[in-house]
Amino acid sequence: MPDSGLLYKEWRQNKVALVITILVFILGNPLSILNMYLIYQGCVTGKENWVGPCVFSVDYLNSTFISVFWIWGVVLAVSQLGIERSKGYFDFTLSLPYSRGQIFKAKFLTGGMVIVIPQLIGYVLSVLLILFLKPDQAVYFHNYSLGMIIVSMLAYSLVMAGGTLTGNIFAQLLVSFTVAISPFLLISLPAINIEILLGVSIDFIHGPVPKWVQYLVPIIYIDSKWVEDSPHYLVIPAIMTIIFYIIGYISFVKLSNERNGYFFLWKPLDRPVQVIVIIIGIMGFGYFGFAATESFVGYIFGMAAGAVIGFLISYFAIYKKTKHL
After folding, report:
1. pTM of the model
2. With DSSP H G I counted as helix, E B as strand and the rest as coil, what are the percentages for the chain, rounded to 5?
3. Which end of the chain, N or C, is surrounded by fewer C-beta atoms within 10 Å?
């Protein structure tokens, strides 16, 4: 258990973000149900303007306030690492008489409690509200409400891990987004380019794949359609959350903070990542060039443009130091 002094420091330093997040998590779910109830009441009072019967349905397949709860996991992680580092407060944090491991655990425990406990409170309030309002049906209410806790923790742990590897907010968000779509970048994009170059069809791109495979891509959970599948699939983001926590913990403990403002805290990552960015730029723009012109000439021009753009983006992002806010 982290020292109470560290937990208090996290609370004081990120109080605004924490309070807003707590309020959103507690009120978001009940407000979603109240919004559906008001829509139903609007149908009842103005029935002549509606098509079909008026049914009070708590349907979580439609857009709800809690569908964007994952954003607050991102906000918390950026506040606790990216903003603290960019404002120059991180040196003070590391100068406190605590180990790096204790500091990271305190940060993660603070964020985890703020994500999990208020959402559970909001869930209980929503259950009571449903019992009081007595809707005709509640579609995916329990699966979605409890599943969003896991999805929010996945977003939080992913961006926290990104923050332990990087030296500024932009780098933290970019690395996190890249990891979120990494299966596409590492598997699908190269396969598409092989198809173009060799003129062959690779079955796993176009053919059926097991449904669980798509849930290995973290960004897939932004779309609420995951709630329609088996709740057992939520084991995957739960495991990924643990993996990102371990990566973040090890990185926070092992990496120094001497490269404040640079893209990566660990300098040996600079060149390999730049090469990877250029390669991805070549493959990505090559594919778009081929798709736009349906010719190999367009593919070549796209690859050339991708090489230049990839080099420029990687050079200015990785090797240029950003100043403290």
Report:
1. 0.90
2. 80, 0, 20
3. N
